Amino acid sequence: MAGFDGQSRHAYRPLGGWVEAPQDPQPELEGQASADVVIVGAGFAGLSTALELTARGAKVIVLEREFAGFGASGRNAGYLAGGQGLEYDLFLKRVGHEQAKQIVSFYDEGVDYVERKLAEYGIDCDYNASGIIRAGVHPSQEKKLRESMRMGVELGSPGEFLDDAAMRARGIPPAFLFGCYVPSGGTLDPGKYVMGLRRAALRAGVRIYENTAVVSWTEGDTVTVHTTRGSVRAPFLVLATNAYTPQLGLLRDKVIPLRVSAIETEPLSAAQLASLGWPRREGIVTAHWTMESHRLTARNTLVLTTKRLHYVYGRQTPNVPDEASYRELATGLHERFPMLGDIAIRACWSGYISFAYDALPVVGEAGAQRNILYTAGCSGHGVGTQSLMGLLLAERIRGSGHPLLSALHHKTPSTLPEPLQWCAVNSALGVANMLDDRVNRRARHAVIR
Ligand SMILES: Cc1cc2nc3c(=O)[nH]c(=O)nc-3n(C[C@H](O)[C@H](O)[C@H](O)COP(=O)(O)OP(=O)(O)OC[C@H]3O[C@@H](n4cnc5c(N)ncnc54)[C@H](O)[C@@H]3O)c2cc1C
Fold first, then answer.
1. What is the pLDDT of residues 328-363, one digit of tens each?
2. Does residue 316 lie in a domain region?
3. 371 phi and psi, to 5 degrees?
4. Nearest residue CA, atom 15 of ligand 1?
5. Which among 287, 329, 355, 416 is least buried, having the fewest CB atoms inside 10 angstroms?
6. Interval 376-415: pLDDT, tens
7. CA dist., res. 133 & res. 181, Å (int)
8. d(CA 42, CA 103)
9. What atom of ligand 1 comes closest to residue 44's alpha carbon?
10. Please, which residues have CB within 8 angstroms of residue 414's CB and are 6 or more apart in sequence?
């Protein structure tokens, strides 16, 4: 990988590999405005909430610091995945079997919800309903994968074990030895999805103010949200700021931002594609402690994400390159797809997810009037869940409530103060990296033999 450092500097995309700043930037908020609901953050959660509320007759204003889609929603890997393969160990004992089943059904419902909305809003985002495979790259991963799959099935989320013969019969690239196949969901272009939501919201009459940073709010029967050059008054405030929420002073002891990185190759030639097989192009994730994700895109590139996570001291979220993670991902690319040789990297980027210690969604109400709603967490599963959250929050605000929202209520464990937090999170990530590196070394030796 000697030459990769220079290449990754050249390929770094501060806005990610899927979106550009929109051609029709919405104005910055200047002066006073009012609405029925003011939403902060224009990712999947903020835009979906705005659309659902508007459909119920509400006047909605969305305030976005950069542009709609700037956050994780415009930078993710595009897996629309349900409740199989969640971090069950982190929450099952805390919430109990019955609530865990409902939570898993929330994740599964997220997949159906997005599929319905793509059709309803007429969004073409290259969705490939291929299902998803959680794969092992070394036999030592099989026991954990089978156990996680069994748990998921028990909690109501279907999955089917594919042995080596079944993987080869599907034409899955040979580095992936066995896996758990989940028939629902698949992969999409998250940039096209979030920009489609933005267009749908503008068409529906949602007022979106971009380049408008919220700095604070004042509670009351009517909440006043203060931005750098204006303010909005509304009976309800929704904070859809995900990993950035702690910087606004809320959920500081509930979620931490984790940096996730991605690389994308140049388009594969017809011969390179043929060398892969992979006719159905299922989204593949691995059974590592920190998973790897590998998928083909509609433009015939390969996108790899995760493998390394990074926590920045003090819950900060700088929009900077993460060279070490890109290098690790490039190593993963060459190890999982040796048939592609030294294929060039066209883009590298990073973004932030928010993580609660139990890996569950963090959704709730704040303020004496309970009229400040927030949604964060969902970790690396926000394509479905943070979209569905729009429906749940809209029904809460319009009075009817939704059973899945009640199902998500639980006590989120508290995070640690700094510098303990930094030490604890980076130690845990370090151990995960060490265990994963050991698996990768064994997989490498198995190939050489
Ligand atoms: C590299 C990567 C890969 C991922 N892969 C997947 C995947 O394959 N599948 C999956 O399901 N999930 C994946 N995720 C997670 C998923 O992208 C997120 O869970 C989801 O996009 C969160 O959506 P959101 O709307 O809650 O937050 P975001 O999309 O982060 O939106 C929050 C918005 O708030 C704005 N904001 C912040 N502060 C302020 C302020 N003060 N004033 C105004 N606006 C503000 C931000 O600019 C941002 O646009 C991935 C994430 C990353 C980073």
1. 999 999 999 999 999 999 999 999 999 999 999 999
2. yes
3. -110, 15
4. 380
5. 416
6. 997 789 999 999 999 999 999 998 889 999 999 999 999 9
7. 4
8. 25
9. 25
10. 253, 254, 357
